[in-house]
Amino acid sequence: MLGTSYRGRRKGVAVRAGSVEQARREARLTLAQVAGGKLTRTAIHLIEKGRTRPSMETLQQIARQTHKPIEFFLNPDAPAALTEGQSQLRELERLTAVRDLDHVVEMGLTLLAQRWSAEDAAVIRLSVGQAYCRMVRPEEALEHLRIARPEFERLGDEWMAVEALDWESSALGLLDDPGALPLANRTLERCRRLGPGAAQIEARILGHIAGMYVVTQSWALAVRYYEEAVDVASGVKDLLQLAKMHHGLGVAYERMHQGGAARQHFDKALALYSMENDQASIWRVENDLGLLLMTQSQLDSAERHLLAALNRSTELNIERRGRGFTLVNLGDVMLQRGRLASAADYLAQALEVGEATGERIVQAEARVLLGQVEDRNGNASMVDEHFEIAIQILEELRMPDRLRDAHMEYAELLDARRDVIGASRHWKRAAVISKLSSLGMRWTATPPAERVASAGPTGAA
């Protein structure tokens, strides 16, 4: 049974079967529009399917949105009280709606220890998996989502199956799994077959796909999907989704060296996140603003924003994913300022965090910058070691744009070292990767034997 913190919730209202869905369809509204920003789309879906009963406040919200009298929904012949299980499911949905993630996981795991129908258990697992994704705990998310999705499919509930599939692809994306993007694209196809009422989930899927392109540094594709997501999200007036899309656009435009456009989108994202009091996302924008200012050589302002982001991550107890990027960026600022000891310290911390969390892109970025620090210190063998590992990681992650840049950065250092043969090899590889990428073809990783043979100051790969 649940602890005392989950007891004593108000009873729900018995509604006439099919009345909520009928009212919504007659009003030509999406689930998100009925929710009106006060509930989640899933909450309305569960009420429509009769899996939970609405509170009177929720029923009044539905009535206002659909322009129906309360009496339209009432079922006078049904018992008024929710069963204990229905009350628990409704409370879990409320916690999900307000993003009380720790309590979603706590309550969800407690509920799963009890007896439920397969359908209700799938709903609980979806809530838990979604919470784990938002907490950036993808392995634990997948444990639940991979059970929930096939159950929804077996029940013929395509809408909930698409919800679960979207979060599953997101969890794979957090793990840098190459299967994440193909799965997300299949999810988008299934979502669009649901019809125009699925605009909110479509916007979220588009945003997730765009985010995957950000990770692979395919900026033009990221912009394309983010802009499409903004168009879709604007129609459902979801402020948090809009904030995420503007945030993603800011990142993409910054990497495309369009600083003005990037700053505009970052400012919009900050304003929207602030309206929703999303402190974790404000932290991320602070980090990205710091990176933007760094690329514009505004190092004082960049350091200020990055330190604010680092301090905020400490306040939010963010010890896992995301913190490594802030540390990498601070290391880069210190490197540009010539403060090599501070740069090395931040980058060593970033590398440690990246290894602890499995964020291989953080490891690669830290290695590239550590290679530059060692070059300034005159330690050629460590330069080669750091770049060798970074390039191998980027090859395995299939990130052609970042891999090309790493080869070019290494080639510049080898040129300065007067290693003409080594530099030429990396310039050529960068050119080939760029050409293949433009043709939509994949770069074949450098054979390990060649990497070992070419390492070292006289013939670095």
List the helices and strands and how they pair.
Blueprint: H1 19-26, H2 31-35, H3 41-48, H4 56-66, H5 84-97, H6 101-112, H7 118-134, H8 138-155, H9 158-174, H10 180-192, H11 199-215, H12 219-236, H13 239-255, H14 259-275, H15 279-295, H16 299-315, H17 323-336, H18 340-357, H19 360-376, H20 380-397, H21 400-416, H22 420-438, H23 448-454
Helix pairs in contact: 1-4, 5-6, 5-7, 6-7, 7-8, 7-9, 8-9, 9-10, 9-11, 10-11, 11-12, 11-13, 12-13, 13-14, 13-15, 14-15, 15-16, 15-17, 16-17, 17-18, 17-19, 18-19, 19-20, 20-21, 21-22
Summary?
The chain is an all-alpha fold. It contains 23 helices and no strands. It is 73% helix and 0% strand.
The top level CATH class name of the domain at 4-151: Mainly Alpha
Oligomer: single chain
Distance between the termini: 61 Å
CATH-scheme architecture of the domain at 4-151: Alpha Horseshoe
Order of helices and strands: HHHHHHHHHHHHHHHHHHHHHHH
Instruction: Tell me the structural class.
Output: mainly alpha
Secondary structure tally: strands: 0
Count of individual helical segments: 23
Unreliable runs, pLDDT <50, ≥5 residues? 1-10, 447-461
CATH topology of the domain at 4-151: Serine Threonine Protein Phosphatase 5, Tetratricopeptide repeat
Q: How much of the residues is beta strand, in percent?
A: under 5%
Proportion of helical residues: over 70%
Q: Residue-averaged pLDDT, rounded?
A: 83
Main beta sheet strand tally, sense and closure: none
| Rg over C-alpha atoms, rounded to the nearest angstrom | 25 Å
Categorize the overall geometry: elongated
